[in-house]
Amino acid sequence: MGAIFAVIVILVILGIIAVGRSLKVVQQYEKGVIYRFGQVLPELRGPGLHAIRPIGDRMAKVNMQIVAMAVPAQEGITRDNVSVRVDAVVYFRVVDPIKATVNVQNYMFAISQQAQTSLRSIIGQSEMDQLLAERESVNRELRRIIDEPTEGPWGIRVERVEIKDVSLPEGMKRSMSRQAEAERERRARIITADGEYQASKRLAAAANVMARDPAALQLRLLQTVVEVAGEKNSTLVMPVPVELLRFFEKMAPGPADPEHSAPREIEDYGDAEVAAAEAAISNVHVPELEESSIPPAPNILPPDMVSTGRSFTSFISTRWLTSCVIVAGFTTPGQRTTSGVAMPPSCDQPL
Q1: Per-residue b/e over 273-283, b at no fewer than 16 CB within 10 Å?
Q2: Tell me: the pLDDT tens digits for 131-147?
Q3: Is 116:71 a contact under the CB 8 Å cutoff?
Q4: Which pairs with CB-CB distance under 8 Å and at least 24 residues apart come from 20-23?
Q5: 285-294 — which CB contacts under 8 Å span 24+ positions?
Q6: Per-residue pLDDT tens for 256-315?
Q7: Which of 19, 34, 97, 105 has the fewest beta carbons under 10 Å from its own?
Q8: What is the average pLDDT across 201-220?
C-alpha cells in the first residue's frame, strides 16, 4: 500500500508540473511564438490561455507596444564645420515577432546602436541652420535612415524620431546673438530713413504751396508764436515781417532775377512713394493728393501809400512798434538790462 500511494503522489506531482508547463497566458499587448524542438512554428498565439506540449515546446512572448528609446547625445561636425552635440528619441514597435526573435539577438540593443550611428551620420550631412530651423525635414530623414535596415530584416518599424536638443558652443551662441542684433538694427535704420524720406517729400510739397502765397507763411509763423506762448516759458518771440525783407530786396539795384518772379514748380512731390508706403502699412488704399486752387497773394500795402507815394520807412515807423527778442526775459525800449542781459542800443531808437 505504501508503494502504491507513493506512485500516486508522484504521478499527481508530475501531472501538476505538466499542466503548469502546458498552460501559457498571453497578455493583450503580446504575441506568443512557439518553438517545437528548436523549430519556430509559423502560427502565432494571440492573447488568452493557450496549451502547449509540456515536452519539446517553448513559448517566447514578444511585446507589441510602441517603445520610446532615448538616444544618447552624439557629438559631430556639421557640413558647414560647426561642432554640435545632438540627442534624440526614437519611437518604434515590433511588427513581425518571428523576425524580431529569430533574426536579431537583442533588438532593443540593436535599435539603440543603429539610432546612434544614424544620428552621427545625419549631423555630418546637415548644416547648422537646418538642425536649428528645419527640424521636421531632419527628423524625416533620420527616421528613414534608421527604419531602412530594421523593418525588413528585423521586423521592427520606426514610427517616429525626434531631435530633442542641439547644443552649440558658447562662441557660436554669442556670434548668433550679435548677428540677430545687427539685423534688427539694420531694419530699424531702414524704417527711420524711409520715414525721413517721406517727410522730406511732404515738406517740399508744403514749401512749394506756401511759397505761392506769402500770407500762408505769415499765418504759419503766427501759429508757431501761439504754440511757443502756450508752453508758459519766459521766451518772447516777435516775428519780423517777411515783406520788409522783400521790400529791401526789390529796392536794391541789380537785374531782376527771373527765379523770384514765379515760384518754381516741383515736378516730384513724392506722392506716389508716400501713398505706397502708407498703403503697405495700413493695407488701405490712399488716394493721391490733388493740388487745390490757391488764391492770389493779397497786397499788404494800404491804398493811400500806393497813391501818395509815401516812403516805406515812414509806413513801418507808424504801423509797427520796435520789437526785440531777448532770451530769458522781456525788455521794453528804455530799459537797459533785464535778468542780467544787456540791451542793444538799437532797441531804444524808433524806426
Answers
A1: ebbebeeeeee
A2: 888 889 999 999 999 98
A3: yes
A4: 21/52, 21/54, 21/55, 22/51, 22/52, 22/53, 22/54, 23/49, 23/50, 23/51
A5: 289/205, 291/209, 294/209, 294/212, 294/213
A6: 554 445 555 555 555 676 667 666 655 544 444 444 444 454 444 444 444 444 444 444
A7: 105
A8: 82
Q: Which CATH fold would you assign to the domain 67-168? A: Tetrahydropterin Synthase; Chain A (3.30.479)
CB 107 within 8 A of CB 100: yes
> Which residues, in sequence order, are CB contacts of 179 under 8 Å at separation 6+?
none
Q: Enumerate the β-bridge partners of residue 156.
A: 94
Nearest by Cα to 240 from 325, 313, 297? 325
CB 88 within 8 A of CB 161: yes
Q: What residue spans define the domains of the chain?
A: 2-63, 67-168, 177-320
Neighbours of 96 (CB within 10 A): 19
Burial class (CB in 10 A: 0-12, 13-18, 19+), 150: buried
Strand ranges of the sheet holding 67-77, from the earlier edge strand across to the other edge: 67-77, 83-94, 156-167
Residue 173's pLDDT band, with cuts at 50, 70 and 90, is confident
